[in-house]
Amino acid sequence: MSSSNDTSVVASSTIIVTLNLINERFTGTLPLIFVILGTIGFLGNTFTFLQRKLRSNTFCIYSLCGSVVDVINLYTNLLMTYIVKDSIVFLPQLSMNLLVTSLIDRFSCTCSLTSPIRRIRRLKMVPYLVVLTILISGVMSLYSPMFYDYVPNSGCVVTDTLSNGTLYTILHGFMAPIIMCVFVWLTYRNIRHSRQRVTVANTSATISRSRHQFISTVVTQTNCAILHLRSLVTHSTSHVINHRVFIVIYILSVFTSDASTMVLKLRELLIKQVAIYLPYFSYDSCQCLTADQRERVLRWLVSHDYLSPTIAPYITKNLLSIPLYSLEFYKCDQLTNDMLIEIGRASHFSRLKSLIIHQCSQVQDSGVRAITKGQLSLEYLALRKLTNLTNVGLDGIHSAFLKEIDFRWNEKIQDHGIFTIVSNNLNLRSIRLVNCHGLTGQSVNHIAQNLAEKLEVLDVEGLKTLDAEVFVHLVDYCPNIRSLNLFGIINLDADGLFTLFVRSTRMMQLNLSYTTCFLQEPVADYLCCLPLSLVDICLSGTQVYSTNILVRALTRLKNIEHLRLNGLATISDDAIEKILAVIGGRLKTLEMNGYITVGSLTDRSVEHIVRYCTSLEHLSLNLLSFTSTLDSLYDLFSSTERALKLHTISLSSFRNINERVLWSLVENCLNVTLLELSGIPCVNDSLISSLKHCRKLSHLNIKGCKQITDLSICDLLGVCRFVSLVLSGCYQLTDKSILALAHTQPFLEEIYISGCTRISPAAVRFLQDNTIRRLYIDHKIPNALPDALMARNLDTGLFEQV
């Protein structure tokens, strides 16, 4: 252990020496580089603004004056810093104020011809406005003599760092960008009003072109202002706090900004380094970390299996020295009861608002009780797939603020455990008990009696039996329940359901998937009494006695927006037309998957969808029909207004789909976030590469698309931020795609690459090390390449491709 510590210290020292060397040799030459580039830019501006057509334009005059001020600052500040290590700052705000003046000039030219503001565009007004701008800039810098003083051998130094930094940030950092944004908005508003007043033949191209020019110019100037703001804030802040601490805080301040992928990668790289070298950080050096950053460090340790017993004391010492508000332990087999007990004993560990423990095999009742004890501010609690959790582990959960609990797949929890947690937390709003097979209807009765009108969401998917008494309790005690999931409960009492349907007036979401009680004619009629307040209903796999009953039940739902009808044997093309003709205009979500085995739907149903569903945002037609060409979807995707509304599209296993439909999809559905095109033979690199225009795409499924190569995958990685990728069966993919994913997709959470024989396990492990959260990988290679090198993995004992 000591040798590894020495090695880490030596490595850290080497890094510091290297960074210091770079700082001395590279940073010292930066002023000269900026002077050269700035001079080139100044010459370009001079030749541009002094052209005959532009020299009399007031906007160009103000811009040229600002360029002159910039080049003066370059030579008196940066160049002098490079030559004699001393500098003079010449009215640093003047250049930005001249830019503001140019924006005011642009605003005046968009005002009406009778407006008095247009007078400032006269050439004789230019000298007056320039002088006024210089005076304003001088006034804005008057605070300098108050907070600066000359010290021998040190030059001009700050005497009051806090006041100077505050005024510097407000006057020079915030005022100019705010004023710029105001006049940009006023200018754009005037342009829009003028277009509404004037009508000229064939103006669409001109309007579009001028709008793009205006937006491009505005974005450029706004970015300059933001960069100026960032530099001013950091400059002033560096005078207020210690230099070493400032560097850490400035780098970690990127954590909370909405930055590009490169900046996000830098943020997560810093999180990774802090997590790895956590034992070597002192208590004082970790004080600059905020609660959110400490939570990220702990989440990284958990997701990458660094949660060893040796690091647990440093977590308590360095990360839990201030209160944390959110903890997540996701699929961490290293997490033990002793670690949770140690975390629970931390002095500041009593203000958690969110706690998630998901599928941690070693966690038992004692660990859960330790980490939940005394958490009086807890608002969300998720204890999922904990095979050793029983009723005893729920005894210590007491919080007046607890609103939601999620206990999915905890088979050892019984009714008594639910009685305890509900009795101790009477402000619960949402309860999810999916596949808790040890529960009975008595737990639901107790929930209803204790929570009463506070209960809003109840998910009891997988319960064996719900009798009439359960439904009576729900409608009697819980009038505000708005979401109920009864997925897969075979033994549903029909009379109880009827009572629920008739007396529930505020229910908005109902899931009756894979229930069989509607096969008999008298009970099937109960569907026609579904609550009229429903907005979302799911009937996937629900067997209904007749088609007419289903049509009558759905057409009376006047508020329905989300409809899921997957794999219904009683549905037909005519039934789809009758349903959508009434409610199609309101639908935002439509799922009709799995009708290949039923064989009851054809392209006619797709035509009805296109004709009636004009507000769709989510469309799923997976496995609808082997023979469908989906030609009618071309009208949906080619309509710009309707195409831009679509966020998720699933069209898997359409072997005969018209390729024109797919091209229309990728060219016009620019806001799509989820796209499934698995099993479509005509999907190729050109089609997938065109998805780079869909910058919001985060979930992509192209399973079994054999024409896909590394080329198209790499094209998307620089644009899209993926969370889920399904590439199974794309056997032409190689390690190139995986390595590109590792460098560009830190937010990837799951990837399916089974059957991709040219992808090596080493590349997959490298990808896993470079993601932020724990990455789920499905990589099965039943038939590896005959010349592939196989070796035994010493960690698992299995033979793997190298």
Automatic annotation (TrEMBL):
Upper lineage: Eukaryota, Metazoa, Spiralia, Gnathifera, Rotifera
GO CC aspect terms: SCF ubiquitin ligase complex
Gene Ontology biological process terms from the UniProt entry: SCF-dependent proteasomal ubiquitin-dependent protein catabolic process
Organism: Adineta ricciae
PANTHER family: PARTNER OF PAIRED, ISOFORM B-RELATED
Membrane-spanning residues: 28-47, 125-146, 166-188, 245-264
Keyword annotations from UniProtKB, A to Z: Membrane, Transmembrane, Transmembrane helix
Entry protein name: F-box/LRR-repeat protein 15-like leucin rich repeat domain-containing protein
The keyword Cytoplasm is annotated on this UniProt entry: no
SUPFAM superfamilies referenced in this protein's UniProt entry, alphabetically: RNI-like
Occurrences of domain F-box/LRR-repeat protein 15-like leucin rich repeat (ranges): 579-766
Cited Gene3D superfamilies: Rhodopsin 7-helix transmembrane proteins, Ribonuclease Inhibitor
Stored Pfam families: DUF7885
